[in-house]
User: Fold these one by one.
Assistant:
Number 1:
Amino acid sequence: MKWNRGLVVILYATFAAATSVAGGRQISGKRSNPSAACFEAQQQLGEAVVDTLPLNQTVVELNWSQTCVQEPYCIISPTDAQHVSEAIKIIKSHNVKFATRSGGHSPNPGWSSIGKEGILIDMSKFNQVSLSGDGQVASIGPGLRWGQVTSVLEQQGAAVVGGRLPDVGVGGLILGGGYHHVSGQYGLAADNVHNFEIVLSDGSIKNANAQENEDLFWALKGGGPNFGIVTRYDLKTIPVGAIWCQLNIYAPGQALEVLDAFTEWQTNGASDLKSTIGLIMGLDTVTVGLLYFEPADQPEAFRPFYDLEPLQVAIPPTNATLSFLNEVLGGAFPFTPLRHDYRGISSRIDGNTTKEVYQHWVERALAVRESTGASQIFGIQHVPSELAKQGVAKGGNPLGIPEEDQLWWTTLVDWEDATQDDVVRSVSIETENYWLQLGEERGLRIPFLYMNDASRDQNPIATYGAENVNRLKQIAKKYDPTEFFQKLQYGGFLLSKA
Ligand SMILES: Cc1cc2nc3c(=O)[nH]c(=O)nc-3n(C[C@H](O)[C@H](O)[C@H](O)COP(=O)(O)OP(=O)(O)OC[C@H]3O[C@@H](n4cnc5c(N)ncnc54)[C@H](O)[C@@H]3O)c2cc1C
């Protein structure tokens, strides 16, 4: 037993005095007291749920990016919504900072991790998947990763709109929207939520869906971690059968030709919503995944690519499954204990601009690799107007994505040394600025910024449009009147900063 009950009173008083943290945005004048909160949580929820010092390092280190790994005062790993409710009440009563972590895939420091000043709520034990009797709704825990969800559902002949990579977590992805291969056909993952089970700041456990707490339902479809801790997502299933796919690897010297083919697909082929392309432009290779969501033979939509000779056909044309795609993509992004960042921007489609920005990026990324060893990728996600229309048709969301064809640029950056954070991150920051400059000059600018690609200094919620932001703030005020999630949540894309 980690707490000797005979010494508890003395330790409690000593720790409480030694570790009280004053100041910060707190919800009452009471001093923050993580040790008292951790003690009370362990007494109430048990040692299996609340881990105190010395912490289990495997759980501490679950964040994908080293930019996020921190030692909290204690870790609460609830197994059901009632535990989350108790945890919230205790955290609130001791005025302690906290962070919630599901898959831990955000690379933004402090979004899903916290240091000694607070408590980590680790949702990894919410790892159940179940399918309704009629197969129409899949209930999934936020602590799952998309690879697990995809494979369990596939064994039961079902699929959902979710994440494209197996290690990425369920919890954060849906609250940011959730862009999937099939989002052109079905909208974002959040648009396909039937019901959110959520614990509010007063500890109450609620459902948010089209009939119950409808305003909260709307807000959760992209509004981030501002309203409560989600303990279950009920997702509408979608029909997915065999998927035609081919994976080609090109040389960096072919990058501009690949971008020409990609733009041609965006302007012509992509109107066939069954077609989608994963484009990952690295510094040594350019990878193109052609995906067609139906069994097929050389779909016409990808015509611009058929004349482009790849260095290597990594996966010859084949009819595959979502799990297979997950595995292939997972292999391309292995879990490595490095520092990571991502960044995003949206733009109207213009091939010349994409190529100019790519050239700007590659020159800088190569130079920074030379001095730091940092590896970076340049990715373009095609967003057909139908994606936004699906969101509206399925009840609406707060994102304010314009109903026009567009692209969401993203970059993933990996490096080792914390002293090089600024120089490494400068490449993506400069690239974003260049997109913005060209976008303004050429009338290509789309203000919307996708939360799941946004870096720590970006402000996605502020781009949702004034009306949506005001509505989100009203809804937050209604469901979290004490501003618990704004004041005690350690990081995240918070409405109070939008
Ligand atoms: C390699 C890679 C691939 C990716 N692929 C995709 C993709 O295909 N599509 C896409 O849309 N995005 C993608 N993303 C982005 C990803 O969706 C976000 O990083 C997302 O935040 C990850 O969710 P998580 O649960 O792992 O995050 P976490 O780091 O655990 O959490 C992220 C944020 O959500 C909050 N949060 C987490 N769980 C809960 C909860 N249950 N209740 C309330 N708040 C919660 C956290 O507090 C934090 O603010 C990818 C990211 C990476 C690094």
Note: Residues 5-122 form a domain with the Uridine Diphospho-n-acetylenolpyruvylglucosamine Reductase; domain 2 fold (CATH 3.30.43.10).
Number 2:
Amino acid sequence: MSVDTAAATDRLMRFLAVPGVTGQEKAIAREIMAALKQAGVPAKAMRFDDANTRIALPTETGNLIVELPGRGTMRDQPRLMFMTHMDTVPLCAGAQPKISGRKIVNQAKTALGGDNRCGCGILVSLAAELIRQKLDHPPITLLFCVREESGLHGARHVDLNALGAPAMAFNFDGSSASSITIAAVGADHWEAEIFGRASHA
Ligand SMILES: [Zn+2]
């Protein structure tokens, strides 16, 4: 399957340039919706949930949820969900992405915000390629969460009824879009109190 990598790179450059630190996701959500519309996703397929009314910290908007109806031979297959988060850590505000050879670098002295505008780029490009190539696919939900960096608040408070009961979900917030983690050996919980100047979420 061929992918329009130039268009995908353009989308990522566009998303990296929009400030959207944790809790302030309105502008990046607007940019993502504009890119989805340009890719052929109708406006009525996109909406926000009311997660921000349940998050105790000030949050500009709810999670952005996009529903793509199934197409062709796979139209009645179980729904799949692809999710990511729209916010960046505060260090990323003011990033100025620039293409340098095969890399995207930052001209400003901030963090770039690849975490997680890469995820946003992946989800929008997924929708764009399915539409452009008229590929058969099951019903799909795209979920763009708010306030991940400050404590997974968007995912924690998502309106589950708005997701269309997906049979399986994939979260894009790791190192590579092509590697999939499907299990963990366990989990451990601990608390730490850190003193000093905040440098990350
Ligand atoms: Zn992340």
Note: The chain has a mean pLDDT of 95.
Number 3:
Amino acid sequence: MSAFVSFEEVSKVYRMGEITIRAVDNVSFSIEKGEFAVIVGPSGAGKTTVLNMLGGMDGCSGGTIRVDGSLISGMTPRQLTAYRRHDIGFVFQFYNLVQNLTALENVELASQICRQPLDAATVLQEVGLGERMNNFPAQLSGGEQQRVAIARALAKNPKLLLCDEPTGALDYQTGKSILKLLQDTCRQKGVTVVVITHNSALTPMADRVIRIKNGTVADMRCCSHPTPVEQIEW
Ligand SMILES: Nc1ncnc2c1ncn2[C@@H]1O[C@H](COP(=O)(O)OP(=O)(O)OP(=O)(O)O)[C@@H](O)[C@H]1O
Ligand SMILES: [Mg+2]
């Protein structure tokens, strides 16, 4: 049986005039359903490129990408739109909330476009924002805004929750509480979570660590007893 997520010899080449950039070069890895996976590596290593191909935001130049039995790398643009809409939840470094909608409306907006959304208010309660649902993003702290963004992604009831440097704009304690929320969500809801970070200190919290260097996988390892993030210091 094949893995829930699999990359097989995936490459991504960007052409800019005379110059070609091999952002991702023959990358292979797999992730099992329900795992908390961390993709780690230095700036420019190709982490975001990998995540964008996995989430159907960018096509690959070669190789095969499979998610839950579907061949993502063979999809038409229309199929990719449906895949992003129904199967993927994204969380970005800078939240990307709609400023003139409340927290609740931001979550409802996302749940309106997918097939089996969860109740927006319930999900906001689960991320700890039950009391702040009617606030606008500008009335919330960075950590609270990131919780709204996580609720927005989770309300879609996605197969995969993809997070690109989700704590990059947050202070130490707030970043830790966001990572705890992601780890708890993975454990309690069984959703497969992929987190990108440049911070190697976070790797003990993962079931699986994929280390990316110069566009290639330098190392992939699994951990049967990951550390709760609140016990990690960095
Ligand atoms: N749209 C693009 N056009 C051209 N080159 C790109 C494009 N996107 C990424 N690259 C290049 O591909 C390489 C990998 O970039 P990527 O953004 O995936 O790195 P990263 O590991 O996410 O880095 P960071 O930690 O700084 O976010 C870099 O050399 C980058 O300049
Ligand atoms: Mg990046």
Note: The chain has a mean pLDDT of 96.
